[in-house]
């Protein structure tokens, strides 16, 4: 095997600036949402919105819950639209987006409507369990939430993704056969290989193994198919298959289940504490004016656990990288694909340690390439039989 070239490249000032702005944009979005929830609670506006929802819903509880959620989402969207618009302009400024404003605005509308539908299902079920089983609602709500989570993971490729993107079966029969064989060697059966028309909205490249059971499929962005060699595409997909081989999906579901259970328990405790101490205007557990408090518990818990969950995710990504290196004939396609992806997606190859620790769910490009280079050297000295 030939010597593997040193892959690490320095980040351009443009990549540094783009990623720094993206981080601050995410922080600002989090801050706006957090402050909005706090203001709703401490000012009593949540109770006022509840009263408006009852009037709009004609006194019907379930319809009033829906109207309350609708009001919350509309106000939240109005508060965040400026940041959303800035994010759209940022992608255009750095020539990463090919999407026109009209298309972006339509996606925003569709995203709002999808969020409203999914939010309505979750919130209606939540308050149904609270009304029917006020003592043990949090355990029942957790169980229903996990069932919905798994169902949506299965349905997303055939129901949600096509709302925003176009997909068509991959016409390159040779590449399709190679990828299906690669997935079979990984012990998973895919129901199809699809060309994902990402170029209609973005210049970035991506690939994924999506769905569960009968909806399991490989999706490859056309921006990947048009600019990468078959060997590089195999290396990218091999990484995705590494998640299947190491059962990362199942493990992540179990981790999510444990965290969600703890979150529902904490929400129940805090909700009873707030009612007993009369901290806010709601006086009973089934008063849906307490929804911002439940959301706040979720937001705070997610924030506190973010470094740990990202560390766990980076561990999984390293395992998937190792599988990709082990299951492909050469290390060079993995290295060249990572470098291409970093350049095409304007990713930071060498973020600061604290940025990677707190924000990144994947190891830095420089670490992934260094590990690949080391693997290549190991195979040169001790080739596998």
Give an overview in words.
By secondary structure, the protein is mainly alpha-helical. Helices cover 70% and strands 4% of the residues. The chain has 14 helices and 4 strands. A hairpin with a 6-residue loop joins strand 3 and strand 4 (217-221). It is globular, with a radius of gyration of 23 Å.
Structure in a nutshell:
The chain is mainly α and 385 residues long. The protein is built from 14 helices and four strands.
Q: Counting H and I runs of at least 4 residues, what is the number of helices?
A: 14
Mean pLDDT: 92
Distance between the termini: 13 Å
Going across the major beta sheet, what is the strand order? 1-2-4-3
Query: What is the share of helical residues?
Result: over 70%
Structure classification: mainly alpha
Descriptors:
mainly alpha
Topology overview:
Elements lengths: L12 H30 L2 H12 L4 H33 L7 H32 L4 H23 L1 H4 L2 E3 L3 H13 L7 E4 L10 E4 L6 E5 H4 L4 H16 L2 H29 L14 H37 L4 H13 L8 H7 L5 H17 L4
